[in-house]
Amino acid sequence: MSTTMALGLRAVAADRNGAALARRPRSRVVHIVPPGPLTPSGRFLPLAARTVANESLKRLQVEFTPLPDLQAAGLRFCRHCTATSALPPSLGVAVQIPDVPSEGTMDDFRDAIRTAYGHLTPADLLTAARWCRTVEECHQLGTVASVLFGPAQATKDPVRHELENTINGRRRALNTAALSPEEKADRAADRDEELRQARLAAESRRLATAADRVESRAARGAYLMPHERDLIVRRPA
Questions:
Q1: What is the dihedral of CA 117, 121, 125, 126, to 10 degrees?
Q2: pTM of the model as a whole
Q3: Helix or strand or coil: residue 114?
Q4: CA separation (Å) from 29 to 26, 125, 129, 154, 181?
Q5: In the chain, where are the structural domains located?
Q6: How many angstroms from the chain centroid is the CA of residue 68?
Q7: Cβ neighbours for 131, distance < 8 A, ≥ 6 positions apart
Q8: pLDDT tens-place string over residues 170-184
């Protein structure tokens, strides 16, 4: 058994290996079509074209990547095209990605990742990150990014950092979406309390700084106004 890689990652890899991402005009379903010729305009697939699931869908218009966040755009991938049997880890590349650590070693896992996705760029993975549907897919994409490009902290590449931030943001959003109403209310209350404590700490620091200035003036024999003397009395411990 091998790891089922994130759909967005498989779709981007297929696209970069020559597949077309296409949909019927006005349809919200995006299909994946193996490499092949386009019509002379370059905007459509021939009527005889078939998807990776071996379906003939007649008139399909090519979608040029990078596509936006599919959910935000009101689009989704075809369930037939994205079944594991139809869309392998990387279209046109014979590779098995072992489970870690139950199967194989970390070296085997890294080698399989590089074989399947070594041709992708941080920008490609950024597109895949916007298509993550689950927290587990976010974790997978983060692992692949680390294997291919190293940790984000070790590079100054802005796209690599954007990729890291997008993966983390997507994971947080998916985690939040999965919470019950009660859990969301608890988190909101926790955030409000954290903000209240932060405001109190900031006010305490402001008063301490002001008291330091007043005490310094008093040490030099300066006259203190009543509110300044009161400030020393009220100085935070």
A1: 180
A2: 0.71
A3: helix
A4: 9, 21, 19, 38, 31
A5: 7-177, 181-233
A6: 13
A7: 6, 7, 8, 11, 12, 69, 70, 77
A8: 999 888 877 677 767
